[in-house]
Amino acid sequence: MATIARNAATQGVYINVPKIDWPLLRELIRKFGWKAETREQLLDRFINNRPSNADLSEEDIMNEVKALRYSK
Fold first, then answer.
1. Per-residue confidence in pLDDT tens, the chain, 72 aa
2. pTM above 0.90, yes or no
3. What is each CA distance from 52 to 47, 55, 56, 58, in whole angstroms?
4. What is the DSSP letter of 19?
5. Which of 28, 25, 49 is nearest to 38 (CA)?
6. 3 vs 66: CA distance, rounded Å
7. Which residues contact 6 (CB under 8 A, 6 or more apart)?
8. Terminal-residue alpha carbon distance, the chain
9. Distance between CA atoms of residues 38 and 24, nearest Å
């Protein structure tokens, strides 16, 4: 039987869980050694890890948005 390397690859998923079931699911996640984040935690982590000084101006960003929007 082949041994599967733990954490060789991960898959991020999003599921809606009723609040009443969340403690049970959180416990299962902990027992399996997985990681779970709420949308708010994920967004907070993203915001906290963003660069403090972006090299793009607002005009640069809008030009990119327009280029993507109207290139179709």
1. 344 455 568 888 888 999 999 999 999 999 999 988 888 898 999 889 988 887 888 899 899 999 988 876
2. no
3. 10, 10, 12, 15
4. G
5. 25
6. 49
7. 33
8. 50
9. 15
